[in-house]
Amino acid sequence: MKTGLTSITFRQFTAEKVIELAKQAGLDGIEWGGDIHARPDNRERAKEVGELTRAAGLEVLSYGSYYFVGKGSDFEPISQTAEALGCSIIRIWMPWDDYDYASHKEEIDRISAIAASRGQTLAFEFHCKTANDLVSRSVAMLNCFGKDNVKTYWQPPYWPQTPPDSLDDLEELVPYVVNLHVYRWKGENNDRLPLAEGARAWANYLQIFKTANAAILEFTRDALPENFLADAKTLHELLAKI
Q: Given this model, what pLDDT does residue 188 score?
């Protein structure tokens, strides 16, 4: 499994600084976010960011887009930006507070065809208040869409689940997961804690999802580089035991 950093962890830094930190942490690559560092309205910059990433010996693991299904947005610029970056995985989102995933099948058919024409895979953010917030819903949704290039991310839920997913439940999601978002959040305020404090849980998660493409660090305590580097060290240690 590859290791990475999602650039939204450090929205305050330039792409060049994010690359420097990922390199320093000994990671394999970066997921570039579409809000700051690789905007779909500036594909020339996205191309440059992709080239800078590879020049540093890193891979562009994925494009973290903010394409929301059901919004009537144009997917073509998203796909083109991922191509400019030089990556084949695009993170997308199901709409907020809308669990009727079947009603979006026509759109998924359309955008997955655009992605397939460029050899790209779409992967939904696993997130609260979307139809992709519980293993059972996720599996049913992806089977409904029935596309080989439509998959999902996974991250440990920080939101209430009814019923909560068990480790056995997670096994059902394994064939559909392309990337993991790795973090340690806890408490009512979702406080960001050192990844080491969640090492036991993450040892289980990484073992279950060991066939995923990448484990991508997302957010770190106080958005400080030194805390990120400590989290990266923990991730390397956990993966070394799998």
A: 67
User: 11: which DSSP letter?
Assistant: T
pLDDT tens digits for range 122-157: 999 999 999 999 999 999 999 999 999 999 999 999
Reported pTM: 0.97
Q: Where does residue 173 rank: exposed (0-12), middle (13-18), buried (19+ CB within 10 A)?
A: buried
pLDDT of residue 68: 98
| Two tokens, residue 88 | 């084949």
Written as six digits, the tokens of 1 are: 């499994």
Dist. CA 7–CA 64, nearest whole Å:
9
Report how far residue 98's alpha carbon sits from residue 83's, in angstroms, rounded to the nearest whole number.
29
Return d(Cα 114, Cα 76) in angstroms, integer: 7
pLDDT at residue 79, as a whole number: 98
Q: What is the CATH number of the domain that holds 23?
A: 3.20.20.150
**Backbone dihedral region of 47: left (phi > 0), alpha (psi from -120 to 50 degrees) or beta?**
alpha
Nearest to 107 by CA among 134, 85, 74: 74
Integer-rounded Cα radius of gyration of the chain = 17
Name the residue range of residue 191's domain: 2-240
For residue 133, CA distances in Å to 136, 159, 164, 178 come to 9, 9, 10, 16
Give me the number of domains the chain comprises. 1
User: Largest Cα–Cα distance of the chain, in whole Å?
Assistant: 46
